[in-house]
Design brief:
Elements: E1 5-8, H1 14-26, E2 31-34, H2 41-57, E3 61-65, H3 68-73, E4 78-81, H4 88-94, E5 100-105, H5 108-116, E6 121-124, H6 141-152, E7 158-161, H7 169-173, E8 179-182, H8 184-188, H9 192-200
Parallel strand pairs: 1-2, 1-8, 2-3, 3-4, 4-5, 5-6, 6-7, 7-8
Helix pairs in contact: 1-2
């Protein structure tokens, strides 16, 4: 089962990242994706270990962005792979069988490729312009989501991502998207986690269900 709300971490230093993870968990986050770019593997591993301790305390799921070996070492709940990262099929052979694998998609073709590689969920975006990523692919918006979801017809959870605010949730869910990943909106005010949960009708007992093929 995959929570409907994913918090993608922000912070310019490990200390700031950990403080934000602590705040997110304290505010009720059910899943945190640790994303910290342009640092050494050693520094990221140390950060991931501390993040695992915090999330475990709150019984919050932890995903590691990109670094599947670190995800395995710290026994995170899974890994999220960007389009330029490793192939999910290869990663599946290297992580624990219980660890989930998510992948980033921007087009219908991206989604189909990921489904063929049996990812557990797809992060589809960007919904709108966001400063959290470099070399941003084309913006999808509500119409882009609807067009892709209608064609896919899949039970694999699709998580909308990219500059999403609480004001966008209702319209996004109407497209058939399963859940939301948010970064800036939550980091600016961690109380918005409760609002997201209300809008997503999510709780610790009500999650998006999926089945392995």
């Amino acid at each position: 089962m995959i929570p409907k709300l994913h918090y993608i971490t922000q912070g310019d230093s490990p200390k700031e990242q950990l403080e934000n993870i602590q705040r997110a968990c304290s505010s009720g986050a059910e899943l945190v994706q640790l994303r910290f770019r342009n640092v050494s593997d050693k520094k990221l591993l140390n950060l991931a270990k501390e993040a695992r301790e915090i999330t475990a305390h709150f019984q919050t799921r932890l995903l590691i962005n990109d670094h599947y070996k670190i995800a395995k070492e710290v026994k995170a709940d899974g890994v999220h792979l960007e389009k330029i990262d490793s192939c999910p099929t290869i990663v599946r052979k290297h992580v624990y069988t219980w660890q989930m694998i998510g992948g980033t998609a921007n087009t219908l073709q991206d989604c189909e490729k990921l489904l063929n590689k049996e990812v557990d969920y797809i992060g589809l975006g960007p919904f709108r312009f966001t400063t959290t990523k470099d070399n941003l692919p084309p913006i999808l918006g509500v119409n882009g989501y609807r067009a892709i979801i209608d064609e896919l017809n899949t039970e694999t959870p699709i998580i909308g991502v990219g500059g999403i605010t609480t004001a966008d949730v209702t319209a996004i869910l109407e497209t058939g998207v399963s859940g939301i990943a948010a970064s800036g909106e939550i980091t600016r005010n961690f109380n918005t986690i409760k609002t997201f949960h209300q809008l997503l009708k999510a709780s610790s007992t009500e999650e998006q269900r999926y089945t392995f093929k």
